[in-house]
Every structure is written in C-alpha cells, then in structure tokens.
Amino acid sequence: MKITAETVQNIANLANLELSAEEIGAMQQDLSAILDYVEQLNQLQIADLPAMEHVLGAAVAAAAGQQPGSNEAAISEVTTRPDEPHPWFSQKEALANAPLSGAGHFKVPRIIDKG
Amino acid sequence: MTDPAVLTIDSVRSAMRNKQTTAAALVERFYAFIDDADRQVNGYLTLCKERALAQAGKIDALVDQGAELPPLAGVPVAVKDVISTAGVRTTCGSRMLENYVPRYDATAVQRLEKAGAIILGKVNCDEFAMGSSNENSAYGPVRNPRALDRVPGGSSGGSAAVVAAGTAVVALGSDTGGSIRQPASFCGVVGLLPTYGRVSRFGLVAFASSLDHIGPFSRTVKDSAQLLQAIAGRDPLDSTSADVPVPDYVAALDQPIRGLRIGVPSDAFASGLDPRVEARVREAIEVFRRAGCEIVDISLPNNQYAIATYYIIATAEASANLARYDGVRYGFRNKDAATLAEMYRRTRDQGFGAEVKRRILLGTYVLSAGYYDAYYKQAQRARALLAADYRKAFQQVDVILTPTAPTPAFKLGEKTGNPLEMYLADIYTVTADLVGIPGISVPCGDADGLPVGVQLLGNYFAEARLLQLAHHFEQLRAQAPASAQA
Fold it and tell me: Which of B183, B280, B335, B470 is most buried by its number of CB atoms within 10 A?
C-alpha cells in the first residue's frame, strides 16, 4: 500500500509530531514498505477468534493448570491493590523534572493564540 | 583478586564472606576497569558511584558484624537505562530524557539492592528500547566487545555488552520483542526473558505495556537463576505482576534432564538463517539428544505471521505510551514555541529520534479511524492464534528450541538503511513476547569468532525448566573436547 505524503502529515498531526519535508518523504517510503509487509495478516481467516488484548490471563490460567479462558479471564487476573491513601510524591518532587514550573504548577506556553 | 570478567555471583559473595576483598574495594576496582575498558564499548551512560559506595558500605558492615550475607551480596550490577533509578539519571537512550532524574526506584532495582547487589550505573540501549542493534541510541552506538566493528544487538545492547566485557558481573535488561535474548546471543552471554507478569514492570519506562518484560543478563546460567530469584514475584505496584509462587530456581539447575522432550519447529531452519548459526544450533540439539532428551518435530503453523502481528501491536501501544512526552512534566522542551500546540510538536520532533517517530506514526496509523479493525483488531486475533499454537505445542513437549537470531552480530551501519529488514531479524524472538511465555538464550559456539546463541522457549512460568536445560547444556559444552565445538 502506498502511503501518501498527505496521510503521513495527517498522522503526524494526530501524533503531535512536526516533521520536515525530508522526514515526510522518508516516512512515506518506510511506512509503505512496513504496511505492505503486515498486509499478510489479512490472509488469516480469524474473524471469529477473540482479540487477545493481554496474556496475563493465559499465563495465570496455565500456572493453575486450567484451560485459559476468554479475554474476560485475562482482565480478571489483573490484581489491583487496596484503594487506600499512602504517601507518594510531594508537590516539590512532582515538579522536580519539569522544564518550567512556578507557584506549585507546571508552566506551559499560552494555549490561545493572540487573535 | 582475579580478573573481573570471570567473577560470578557466588565468587563475589564468597570473596566478601572470606574477606578476600571488601565491597568498597570491589566497587573501586570495577570503576577503574570501566574507565579503561568501556571507552571503546560505550556501554555505560551514567555511573552512580555515590550510591554504589553507600551500598558497598552496608555490605562491608554486615561482613564486619559476621552477619549472614544476602544472596547477591556485593555483586556489581548494570541496569538498562529504561529502568528507573531514584536520584540517578534515566535517559531511555533518548534526548527527550537527557536530564530526567526519577524520584523512585523500579521494583526490580529495589529488590536487587535489598538482595545485596550494587548498582554500578545505567547502560546504553536503543531509544525507548526500540531497535535490534543499539544504533538508535541518542548517546551513540554500543560496540560489541567480541568484535568492535559490530553491533551488540538490541535493544538491551549495553546490558549484554558490559556483561560480556566484564565491566559488570550481571545486568538487567528489558525484552519487548527479543531485546534481551538477541543481544545475549550477539555478545555470547546468557539472557532470560521471564514469563509476562513474573517480574514487576513498576518503574520500567513503558514501550508496549502488554509486551514489556524486565529480565537478567549473566555469563553463567546459574547467575541468571540467582538474579531472577531476587527480582521475581508479585508486586502490589504492578497490577499485571502475577500472583504465582516463585520456585527455587537454583535448586532446579541440577535436576536430571534425561527424558525431557525438546520440540524443534519445522520452520526453525528456514531460509535466511546463516548456515554457521544453523550448524551451531544443530550441534546444540545433538548435545541434548546425547544427554537423553527426546527431540520432537513440532509444527507452529502461524509463526510466519508473528513479525507482522508484533509490529502492529507494539507500535500501537508505543504510540499511546509515548504520548506522555510533551515537554510539560519532565524531559526536553522546545523553548522557542509561542503556543502550547507548537511546543508539543517541536518538542517531540526534536526530542525523538527517527526510529521512535517511525513507530509512533505506524502505531497512530493502525489505531486511527477506519484502520483499527483491519490492523489492530486483526493483529490481536492473530496473537490469540499464536497463543493457541504454543498451547498445543506444550502439550507435546517440555521446551521448544530454535536459533535466537538468524545471524551472528552484523556490522555497525549494515542494516540502518532498511527498517523492515531490521524488523525481520526478530523472527525467532517476537513470538514469546506476543504469547507471554519465557525464553532463554544461551551461548552455543562461534561463527568465525562471533558468538551464536541457542534459544529455549518454555510454557508459562517454566523458567526453572529453561534454566535447568540451559545449565546442563552449558556444563556439557564446557566438558566437550574443543574439537567437538568447532
């Protein structure tokens, strides 16, 4: 499948990437080649198989000697910790890696352009 | 004190216990060795001498008190730079995180130190663990210590290289599509991919969350067993860490292997495999056969779809995970942008390298409206198909044996022009990550002086079985006459 420069530009916008004209050309080539390659998955007749979003359920079921179940089983194997407050970052620590901060906040350039 | 490059976990611990050296002296010796030997290799990105000496002080105090030493007492460890270390810069091999200093330790790091290990520093890798050659690091490529004009493999190239060079005794790496096993093969060391959920991912900077794993590198199989022992097990801070008991990995090593069934897939020696690699892997099969293992031909009929499946799922997850790098909370920011939207775009353009951008774009594309079902859903179904194939295979056999990589280490720059070709080299490794099963790469000889690894894959949580077989293999190879090793 041939990806157009316009498509590359569109997905770059979606991904918040600013690409130079040169980068767009290179990505057009690379993405086209990779998408051509992954096209082979469409040869598989697997429309009725459940989509596997996660492997943990299969792993834990196998460890327990059970037949791994559906994808629902995978999600149920995720064990959450009790929802209890515990000490974590201080505000100062949370801001320590920020490129720009002040008055206890992350600072960013203005959001609305001057009209 | 012997050559640092031959130290093991046991030899370091007994040197401490018998007061042949102190942990502090050992740390100083390793830093001197790194200063000398790492110049050419470029394995280390950041050294944390203060932290290492503080930890060494604790070990030396235990020795002075005559106290029982923890299992990894005094063992110098290197940590891949995608694994968070509190107070120690963690770059992920990216300009984006050049000055990022985590406020917390990854659980694996915290457990290593609790077990007495000494973190020497952070090691180089492909940017955000995306790559198979370590040439995608913003801090320059790592060179293979066994052949300096060649790549160490990737993405955990630094971890493999420093263990091979002896500038660390063991290391932590991460594996999303082969990033532990392939560099282990290229550098002639042992690399272990644990079952998904076996080792906590807390503090591992996310690339593809359903595929990411932390695992050990070492020069002996036993050291990987001991390292895994220290880091494995349920962690409340990672909801995907499995609540499954951790066995005694070292105790399993010497169990007999006679009668175990080793499956060899029909496509293990497919086209594209370097004949020298094929020869070494066939010799490895013979070693197991002579040791009384049963070699069984098996079929994994959908393996050919693994790379396509992998590069859809991994990039989709990466495009979501890497959305967080926006120049606001941490990392690089373009300071010239006038508006927020412009700041996001320029920050990401300048902060990310070409391979990371390529994968973000591909992932964004396969998740975008109109393509989601055709690519992403289809890949998730293919993933289920692969998992079913392996489930069937493990009803027939105890482990599956393949080459780890189709070639030995290639030359720097040899494959950088063709991303797809680089992806195709992951053919033997990606499936284990997709299916969630464990794998190990263990050295099985040389191809004209370049190391070759053989891979063993096991059923879920069968790390002990993999380590046992790999340990026997390592011992049998060491006993074999040199002429039989080619």
Answer: B183
Residue A66 clears pLDDT 80, i.e. is over it:
no
Do A55 and A36 share a structural domain? Answer: no
- Catalytic residue among B80, B122, B222, B415, which? B80
Least confident of B20-34, B78-92, B470-484: B470-484
Closest Cβ opposite residue B387 in set A26, A46, A52: A52
Pair (A37, A13) in one structural domain? yes
Question: b/e string for B53-82 if b means 16 or more Cβ within 10 A?
Answer: bebbeebbebbeeeeebbbbbbbbbbbbbb
What are residue B172's phi and psi, to 5 degrees? -100, 140
Half-sphere exposure at residue B85, Cβ-oriented, CA atoms within 13 angstroms: 27
Q: Of 3.90.1300.10, 3.40.1180.10, 2.40.160.60, 1.10.760.10, which CATH number belongs to B4-252?
A: 3.90.1300.10
Q: Which residue of A has its CA nearest to B237?
A: A81
Percent with pLDDT over 90 in chain B: 93
For residue A26, give its domain range.
5-42
Q: Are A32 and A13 in a shared domain? A: yes
Q: Interhelix angle for A21-38 vs B354-367, to 10°? A: 60
Same domain? A28 vs A54: no
Number of domains in chain A: 2
pLDDT band at residue B432, thresholds of 50, 70 and 90?
very high
Contact B329 A100 (CB under 8 A): no
Q: Are B114 and B148 within 8 A, CB to CB?
A: no
In a domain, A102, yes or no: no
pLDDT, tens only, B75-115: 999 999 999 999 999 999 999 999 999 999 999 999 999 99
**Nearest CA-CA partner of B386 in B306, B298, B314, B297:** B306
Dump pLDDT digits (tens) for B281-316. Answer: 999 999 999 999 999 999 999 999 999 999 999 999
Residues 68-97 of A with CB under 8 A from B: 68, 77-81, 89, 93-94, 96-97
